[in-house]
Specification:
Layout (H helix, E strand, L loop, with lengths): L13 E2 L12 E3 L1 H13 L8 H10 L22 E2 L6 H12 L4 H12 L16 H4 L5 E3 L1 H4 L4 E7 L15 E9 L5 H6 L5 E5 L7 E10 L2 E8 L6 E6 H5 L4 E7 L2
C-alpha cells in the first residue's frame, strides 16, 4: 500500500556525514542500534563485483530475516518536514525493500546513505512530495530503480487503469499529494503457474495487486528461489510471525488477487 508517513519515531542520533563537501552523503537520522546493524550488514556483504545478482539479493535480503515488523518509521507528511530516516531495528514491507536495494548498490556507509536517497526519492530530493510512495514509482520514475516485467511473464497479464492516491470510497490516501493516473499490470494469482514462476528471478520485487483503484499494491516482498522451493521473503505484520519471514510463494498467492513484478535494474 502507500507509504503512510509516521511522526512518532524516536531516534537517538542525527548524524550528518561529510557535511561541507559537494559529494557529501545527505544528513541522515539514525539510531545507535540501526547504525550498528548497518555496519554489521555492510561487513557481511560480499563485495565481489562479479557476484551473481540473484545470489547477492538473496544473501542481503537474508540478513534481515527475523527483524521485527514496524510501521510508520518514516518521518514526513504534507505538514511535517521530511527526514532521511534509516531504521534497521524494525521495518515494514516497503522500507525493507528500500534497504535491501540500497545495500545492494553500496560498499560503505556513505554510499548506502546516498543510494537510499536514490531508491526512496525522486530526483534525489528528500521531501514528502518526492518520496516514492507507491510500488510502481520504482519503475515509473526516472532513473528507474526497477523495470516492470509483469506483462512479459504471462500472456494472462491484465492491465488496469488506476488513479493512485484516490480512495474508491472517497478522499485520498495521502493528503497533500496529487492523484496520479497510472495503468497497473498484474497477473491474477490463479494464472501464476509453474511457467510464470520459472520466469521469475531471485531478487525480483513482487507486489500484491490491490483491487482498490487508488493503490497499485497492498504489500511488497522479494522472490527467492530456494532449495525447498520458491518463497516470498517479506516483512509481515501478522501477529503470528510479525517480522521479516519467508512464506511459501504458493501459500501466499492463495491470499492475494494477483502479482505485480518489478525487476531491479542494478
Amino acid at each position: 500500500m502507500a507509504r503512510v508517513a509516521g511522526v512518532g519515531l524516536a531516534l537517538t542520533a542525527v548524524v550528518a556525514m561529510g557535511a561541507g563537501s559537494a559529494s557529501a552523503a545527505p544528513a541522515v537520522r539514525i539510531s545507535d542500534g540501526s547504525d550498528q546493524i548497518l555496519q554489521s550488514m555492510l561487513a557481511a556483504i560480499d563485495d565481489d563485483p562479479n557476484a551473481d545478482p540473484g545470489a547477492q539479493a538473496e544473501s542481503i535480503s537474508r540478513l534481515f530475516l527475523g527483524t521485527p515488523y514496524g510501521a510508520n518509521t518514516l518521518v514526513g507528511s504534507a505538514t511535517v518536514p521530511e527526514e532521511h530516516v534509516v531504521e534497521l531495528e524494525r521495518v515494514d514491507c516497503f522500507t525493507y525493500a528500500d534497504y535491501v536495494e540500497a545495500l545492494k548498490r553500496s560498499d560503505d556507509r556513505d554510499e548506502f546513505v546516498t543510494n537510499l536517497v536514490a531508491v526512496r526519492y525522486k530526483n534525489g530530493d528528500v521531501s514528502f512530495e518526492n518520496r516514492k510512495h507507491f510500488f510502481t514509482d520504482w519503475s515509473a520514475s526516472t532513473p528507474a530503480v526497477a523495470t516492470d516485467v509483469t506483462a512479459t511473464l504471462s500472456d494472462n497479464a491484465v492491465s488496469s487503469p488506476k488513479n493512485l492516491n484516490s480512495k474508491d470510497a472517497g478522499g485520498v490516501y495521502l493528503p497533500g499529494l496529487p492523484v496520479v493516473p497510472r495503468t497497473v499490470t498484474y497477473i491474477p494469482s490463479e494464472q501464476v503457474d509453474d511457467d510464470v514462476v520459472g520466469r521469475l528471478r531471485t531478487g525480483d520485487y513482487v507486489g500484491a495487486y490491490a483491487e482498490d483503484g487508488g493503490l497499485d499494491v497492498t504489500h511488497v516482498g522479494i522472490f527467492i528461489d530456494t532449495q525447498n522451493g520458491p518463497v516470498f521473503r517479506h516483512a509481515s505484520s501478522r501477529s503470528d510471525n510479525s517480522g521479516v519471514v519467508d512464506t511459501a510463494l504458493s501459500a501466499y498467492l492463495d491470499t492475494i488477487p494477483g502479482i505485480v513484478v518489478l525487476r531491479p535494474v542494478a
